[in-house]
Structures are given as C-alpha cells and as structure tokens.
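Thought: the user wants the 3D structure for the chain below. I'll pass the sequence to the structure tool as-is, report back what it returns, then summarize two notable features.
Action: structure_tool
Action Input:
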Amino acid sequence: MYLGGLKILQIYPMKRLYILLSIIFIFLLSSCASKDEKAVQNSAVENIYFDYQVLAEEGDDNLTVLIRFREGEEGEAISLSGISSVSLDGEILTADSSKRTGAFYETHKPIANFAGNHTILFKDDEGNEYKEDFLFQPLVLTNYIPDTIKRSDLLFELEGLEPEDYVRVLATDTLFTSKGINRLDTVNNGKLILSLDDLGMLVNGPIQLELIREYENKVKNGTEAGGKIAINYRLRREFFLKD
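Observation:
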C-alpha cells in the first residue's frame, strides 16, 4: 500500500504539471493568434482605397454623394465590416450594392443647401479615424445665352470657380461624322470663351453644350493605399447655331 501510495503521489503531480503546461501553451498560442489576427485586420484596413465622389447637375434638386471602398485603387468595391462606419457631416451612411458596382454608400442632399464645407469620416474597427474635409461650390452661369447664336466669339461668365480654374467643354451637333468639341479649358476670373474658330468645328443647327467643373484630388487623410475625392458639377445648354 505504501508503494502504491508512493506511486500515486508521483503520478498525480506529473499530471498536474502536464495540465498546467498545456494551459500555458494554449494561452500563448491563442495570444499569438490574436496578435496575428489583429495584424491581418490592420493590414486589410491599410489596403482600403477611398473613392469619394460628389455628383451634381444644374436643374436637379438634389446632388449625390457616392462613397466606395476598394481593395486597392483598381480593386473591387467592398462593404465595411464589424463596427467600421462612414459618415457625412455626422450622418452615418448605410451600405447598398449592385451587381455592376458592388458595395457602395450613397446619400442625396439638396443642392441649394449644400454649398460650403463638409466632412467625410471613416472609422475602422480599431477606432482609427480618417477625416476628409471638402468644399462644394455649385457652378453658376450668370450671363444669358440666347436660343439662337450667330457665329462669333461666345462668352460664358461663371461663378463658383477659383480665380484660375478648369472647365471641360463638350459641344455636339447633329452631324454624325462631326467630332464636336471635347476639351478642358482654363477659366480665368470666371470667363470662358468659345471663339469663332471653335464654333467652326460645329455645323449649323441644334447644338448640345455641356460645361463641367471637374475637381479631383488625392485624399489628405487616407490609408497606405490612398484614395481620391472627385467633385463633378454639370451645366447643360441648348441653342441653334447659324451663320
């Protein structure tokens, strides 16, 4: 019995030691796994490319703020997971999706009340914040363009631009083989001119004209993958061109 008791005293401490070592090993393993998982999460966040767009057109009541997060600049659009969120001026946006564009976040705001400064805020699962401020100014044509235009220099006076800015000019006529006008023009002090030579690229008849203020820049507060913010405001006019 004594020997048997001695064997029991020898075996049980070994079992307890084995159990203790097993617990320590499992704890260390789970701790490493947790660190690896966190690193993967952080790495995934750093690979997110921010795609912010503001789309507006004269004559529409509302503009569109469209936000997409991509797996790299050319990657597919993804939805946020966990407690990540994106907001516009404090309003949390909810995810939507389509087969063509993938996941996106979208809101519509009255153009009349949207002029001024705004903030897009992205928060990731770790509580990191990526804040992007932008200024929206509607493009306004202040001078009257008649329904019928004779061939001569055509002046457009614009507001909502920097002293030196850029506007894309698109003009098309009804001739199938006509190339029309499609170019980015420099606008100084709000004045844009289509010269007589420019109108010479168009045939007489109905003309569809678009003036587009295209602003695109890199986000100031992004991940390692970066991002862009683009603001597009479009004006449309129609007139009849004649000699």
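Final Answer: Structure generated. The first strand starts at residue 48 and ends at 57. The first helix runs from residue 2 to 46.
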